[in-house]
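Structure ticket #2291
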Amino acid sequence: MEIVLLDQTRTFIFACFLGICMGLLYDIFDVFPRIVCRRYIRALCDILYCIIFMMCFTALVIFSAGGVLRWYILGGALIGLALYFLGAAFYVRAFLCAAEECFVIFVKLVRKVLCFIENLFSGPTGN
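Resolution: structure written out below.
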């Protein structure tokens, strides 16, 4: 009986960790479309997130629980997701927003340098 309880506890902890990881991945996929500024990228990121979550959850159920979906697996994933959004999500989002701003500044700087180089090597215009 102890081995079964140990396996169930391990599976529950794995499910909680999966929920935390999927919350982090959700925030990363939320920032990416804002950087690219394309509407269809958001839909692609949402579809990709759902596929990744489905594959990870299915792998957890198959490899850790023997292919049997138990209530504590789904509950563990939901608890992990709730823990992420109630705890670390604020700090992760602040970091990702700062990284997004740094990326935008970097892109603007690269564009200015490239425009300067283009103007430097372009021939004279006019008569």
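Closing remark: The first helix runs from residue 2 to 36.
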